[in-house]
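Hi R.,

Here's the input for the adenosine-5-diphosphoribose complex you asked about:
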Amino acid sequence: MIARGAPIVILTGAGISAESGLQTFRGEGGLWEGHRVEEVATPEAFARNPELVQRFYNMRRAKLGDPAVQPNPAHKALALLEAEWPGSVTLVTQNIDNLHERAGHRAVIHMHGSLDRIRCLACYSENTWLVDVEPESACPSCTTSGRLRPAIVWFGEMPHALDAIAEALSEAALFVAIGTSGNVYPAAGFVAAARADGARTLELNLEPSAVRTAFHEARHGPAGDVVPAWVEELLAR
Ligand code: APR
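And here is the predicted structure with adenosine-5-diphosphoribose in place:
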């Protein structure tokens, strides 16, 4: 599909972590305790009901510590690709879990933030945070209590690293989207941007995404099967 060593950009979404036991956002009814994700993942929701929003993220953060939640063959295959491909591999994830890192992936762009980090609204510092956030939890940097928020990019907020991502997309020979439904922009628009700048584009997803027709090619199936098969194919060439 591309020359050996040509630059690759990969976008991952919740589907890559589904076989690790983490729920996707829009599958299985897409509800959390009766709330749509869009209702808990906004600055307005946090202002209105901080306890509800913290509980949503506390539960997700706690799940990362569940011994049953481990990187799956798809995360591991991408880490192998990063290590073995003789050119650049830029991994952009919409996921807030840490499974790419735990699979050994070294450079991961978390465009929607990270569950294992916390931001302080008093001093704006960010710190690693692995336990539940309680209403009076204190900031590790400035010790102010009750001003912590998840270091997550909510609907209506600016995703991280958009300049670096745009540059990588413009240079990519191949753009691959894995396990994402193509409903949330700007990530859902990356395929069109990469393609406009000359990249080949490939979708690897359980089913056709909302932006399937924007891709040159698609392979549909569980990430744990289709991603290792694709990586093996690419590295064997
Ligand atoms: N293998 C591959 N794909 C899968 C699997 C699997 N085992 N299981 C589910 N999928 C696919 C689904 O078919 C769906 O198309 O993964 C996709 C997951 O879509 P979403 O739940 O919408 O997740 P995502 O695209 O990552 O959501 C984007 O929306 O809620 C916000 O900020 C949040 O980052 C998130 C963003």
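One thing worth noting: The chain has a mean pLDDT of 95.

Cheers,
M.
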